[in-house]
Design goal:
29% strand, 495 residues, 20 strands, 10-stranded mixed sheet, alpha+beta, 3-hydroxy-3-methylglutaryl-coenzyme A Reductase, Chain A, domain 2, globular
C-alpha cells in the first residue's frame, strides 16, 4: 500500500498467539533494506527484542510501515524474515501490485474484529444485502442470541440459519464414557429421519442397548519436505526419528493440551511426508495441531543441515482434512469408535418385520455393491445421523467428509440371532471450542451432558450408538420392502 515517504503492508496472524522477538531482514524486489527503516505502530522495529517482544494474538493484524523511496506502480515483491516465540525464524514472501485505498461499493460492510458484531454494523450489512439483492430475510435476521457470541465462528455476520430439530430416544448406551439413557437432538430437514432412528433405538433398547468403545483418539497435520533426490529424503526421515523428542518438545510448547503421539513418515519420489499425530483433548484440534506442527517444522528447518531442503509446505494433503481417505480408515483421524449389539431374531421379526438371515444376506450383497462403487462406508447411511448431530451440536459440518467413513458388519450366530456392529474410524468432533459454545449448540450438547471439557469421548460413543440404530433401521426397511412406503408416508413435503 502506498504511503508518503514509503509504503506499508500488513501481517495477519493465522497460526496462534505469539510474540515477535526481532525483525531480521527485509528485502524489496530483492534489494536489502535496513531494518531501522521499519516502523510498527509508530515505533522503530529495533525496539522489539527477546527481552521486550511484540505480542500478536491469533487473528490479529499488524501494519508495518517502511520508509523508502517512492514506489512505482506495478507489482513488487517483499521478503521478510522475523523471529517469533515460540515458532522460531519465519520467512515470509509476497508478490503483489502497489495499491491505493479506494472505496468499493460492492464490498460487504465490515469493521475491525472487535467491533464487527455490534448491532449498527450488522444492520448496515443487512441493509446492504437488501439493496444489492432486492430480497427480504426476516427469518435469517431474526436470530435469538447476542451476535457477539458468534465472534470466532463466522465473519460478516448477518443472522442465523434455522434448521428443524427433532428428538430421538432415549437410547441406552453401554459405554466406557457414556452410560445410561440419552435423548438425542437431531437437526434435519429430511422427513422420516427422526422416525427411522427412533425405530432403531427401540430395538437396540430391547436388546440391552449399544455397547460403545473408543479405540483410538488423534488428530493430524502432514507437512512435506522436498529434497534433491530420494536418498536425501530417506536420510531426512531417519534424522526426524532420531530427533523426535526435541521435535515433540517444540510442538507441545504451543499448547497446554496437544501431545505428540507419533510422527509417521511416508516417502515418495524425493518427497518426505511427515504425518504428525497428536492427542487434542476435547477439541477437534485441526488448528491446534496446525500451530504445533508449524512450530516443530520451523525448528526442523533451522536445525537440519545434512542435506539441502529444496521446498517445504505445512500441509501436503496427506492429513486429508475434510476429505475421505484410506489412510484415515487405517490409521484414525479424530475418534475411532465402535458400537455393537446382539439382537434376538424374534425381536427383529416383531418390531422390524424382517429376520436375521435376510439382514445378513442383504449385507453380503450390499458389500459387493459397495466394493463396485468404491464407497467409503460399508453400511447404509452413517452420514444421516452424523450430519443431524453435527448441526445440532456445533461441529464443523465439513468434517462429515471424513467422519462419515464407516465399517459395518453383521453375522447370524448359531441361535439365529444377529450380531451388528459399526466402526467409525475418523470421527472428528469436539465438546469444547469451535461452534460448541454457541447458544443453540450448547443447549443440544447439555441435553446429553456432553458440553465442555472431558466429554468428547462420551459424545463419540453416543454418536456411534445413534449411527448403529440408523444402520439397523434402514437395513431392516430395505430388507422388508418398507423403505419406499415410509418415505411416501412421512418424507414427502407436498406444497
Amino acid at each position: 500500500m502506498d504511503r508518503p515517504g514509503g509504503f506499508a503492508f500488513s501481517l495477519k496472524n493465522r497460526v496462534g498467539d505469539f510474540h515477535i522477538e526481532k525483525f531480521l531482514e527485509l528485502r524489496l524486489d530483492g534489494k536489502l533494506l535496513p531494518t531501522d527503516c521499519i516502523q510498527v505502530g509508530g515505533e522503530p522495529a529495533s525496539r522489539w527484542s527477546p527481552e521486550h517482544p511484540l505480542p500478536l494474538a491469533l487473528g490479529a493484524s499488524l501494519e508495518v510501515e517502511v520508509r523508502s523511496e517512492a514506489l512505482t506502480s506495478g507489482i513488487h515483491r517483499i521478503d521478510l524474515s522475523i523471529r517469533l516465540n515460540p515458532y522460531g525464524k519465519i520467512n515470509l514472501s509476497v508478490k503483489e501490485p502497489l495499491r491505493e485505498d479506494e472505496p468499493d461499493e460492492t464490498l460487504v460492510p465490515r469493521l475491525d474484529p472487535e467491533h464487527d458484531y455490534e448491532p449498527e454494523i450488522i444492520a448496515e450489512r443487512q441493509e446492504f444485502l437488501r439493496r444489492r439483492t432486492g430480497t427480504e430475510f426476516p427469518h435469517i435476521a431474526g436470530y435469538a442470541f447476542q451476535a457477539q457470541q458468534a465472534q470466532g465462528n463466522v465473519e460478516q455476520f448477518i443472522g442465523a440459519a434455522q434448521v428443524p430439530m427433532g428428538l430421538c430416544g432415549p437410547l441406552l448406551i453401554q459405554g466406557e464414557h457414556a452410560q445410561g439413557e440419552f435423548y438425542i437432538p437431531l437437526a434435519t430437514s429430511e422427513g422420516t429421519l427422526v422416525a427411522s432412528y427412533n425405530r432403531g433405538v427401540k430395538v437396540l433398547n430391547l436388546s440391552g442397548g449399544a455397547t460403545c468403545t473408543v479405540v483410538q483418539d488423534c488428530m493430524q497435520r502432514a507437512p512435506v519436505f522436498t529434497f534433491e533426490n530420494a536418498r536425501d529424503a530417506r536420510d531426512f526421515a531417519n534424522w526426524v526419528e532420531e530427533h523426535r523428542a526435541q521435535i515433540a518438545s517444540r510442538a507441545e510448547a504451543t499448547s497446554s493440551v496437544a501431545k505428540l503421539l507419533e510422527i509417521q513418515c511416508f516417502q515418495a519420489i524425493r518427497f518426505a511426508y511427515l504425518r504428525f499425530c497428536f492427542s487434542t483433548g476435547d477439541a477437534a484440534g485441526q488448528n491446534m495441531v496446525g500451530r504445533a506442527t508449524f512450530a516443530a517444522c520451523n525448528w526442523i528447518l533451522e536445525k537440519y543441515r545434512q542435506h539441502p531442503i529444496v521446498d517445504f509446505f505445512l500441509e501436503s494433503n496427506m492429513a486429508t482434512d475434510k476429505k475421505s481417505s484410506a489412510i484415515n480408515v487405517l490409521h484414525t483421524r479424530g475418534k475411532r469408535v465402535t458400537a455393537e449389539c446382539h439382537i434376538r431374531n424374534e425381536v427383529l421379526k416383531k418390531h422390524l418385520r424382517c429376520d436375521s438371515a435376510t439382514l445378513q444376506r442383504h449385507a453380503r450383497v450390499a458389500g459387493v455393491g459397495g466394493f463396485l462403487a468404491q464407497v467409503n462406508n460399508t453400511g447404509c447411511h452413517a452420514a444421516n445421523a452424523l450430519a443431524a448431530m453435527f448441526i445440532a451440536t456445533g461441529q464443523d459440518v465439513a468434517n462429515l467428509a471424513e467422519s462419515s467413513a464407516g465399517i459395518t458388519y453383521c453375522e447370524v450366530n448359531e441361535s439365529g440371532d444377529l450380531y451388528l456392529a459399526v466402526t467409525l474410524p475418523s470421527l472428528v468432533i469436539a465438546t469444547h471450542g469451535g461452534g460448541t459454545g454457541l447458544p443453540t449448540q450448547r443447549e443440544s450438547l447439555e441435553m446429553m451432558d456432553c458440553f465442555g471439557r472431558g466429554k468428547a469421548r462420551k459424545l463419540a460413543e453416543i454418536m456411534a450408538g445413534v449411527v448403529l440404530a440408523g444402520e439397523l433401521s434402514l437395513a431392516a426397511a430395505i430388507s422388508s420392502y418398507d423403505w419406499v412406503a415410509s418415505h411416501e408416508r412421512l418424507g414427502r413435503h407436498r406444497t
